[in-house]
Protein: ABC transporter domain-containing protein
Amino acid sequence: MAQPVIEAKGLGVKFAMNRRRKRSIREMFIHGTKRDPNKAASDFWALRNVSFEVAKGDCVGIVGKNGTGKSTLLKMIAGVLLPDEGTVTVRGKVAPLLELRAGFNDQLTGRENVHLVGSLHGMTPKMLEDRFEEIVDFAEIKPGFIDTPVRHYSSGMKVRLGFALISQLEHPIMLVDEVLAVGDKSFREKCYKAIEKMLENERTMVLVSHNEGDLKRFCNRGLYVKQGDLVLDSDITEALNAYNVDTKAEIAARKKKDGGKAA
Ligand SMILES: Nc1ncnc2c1ncn2[C@@H]1O[C@H](COP(=O)(O)OP(=O)(O)OP(=O)(O)O)[C@@H](O)[C@H]1O
Structure:
């Protein structure tokens, strides 16, 4: 049997909560060890005991509430965040579209970013030259703006350029975080077509989205993450149903609590 393309075993990552800053030498000199700005800081597990496998050609949707660990999981798969526990094995090159951009540098222009990020992902200068116009057209960046620093772009422009570039990569694994939520309707349609084309070629995708329509359209599998736990690994419909049931129960509980307070 073919090996899974992504294999996560007992993944866990912890972050610091309430950590403000490092103690300065001056503070240490004046107050000794008594005054610690991080006294109240503590670590918390953003994700723990997460294990799953993704086969070649799968499109897996990660669902769950805000702040539950979805982007963190995607970052560990991308290798930009190292787990504190467990391992994640990724067999193949990854095209990541994380945090609404492709890793662009705000100080550089759109053109410079396309060349820099494209080459970091292994595109040759010739490939970049040949595809540059196609990328800019796809992203609908108006003439002139491509030579403007990216810090002056709207979030939609950054995402469009990021998607246009990353979708040119022929890497077998694609990681997409909430990108479709930002583009306008006509751009989303273009993205849908581009994603469908990629998936036809047996590429593997992991998608984080709050949009049920997008998840059902592309994903055959779903991972439901709840407060840092992977509570369900199933087909996408089942994962969404479980998430919706929990959300309804939570809303009902909140209404009951608010009603109790008002009474
Ligand atoms: N670098 C970091 N330092 C400290 N805490 C972090 C860091 N990155 C994420 N967290 C925390 O980890 C938890 C999970 O965050 P994550 O961004 O993965 O959630 P999410 O499910 O993707 O949320 P959303 O749906 O809002 O995008 C949150 O409590 C978040 O505040």
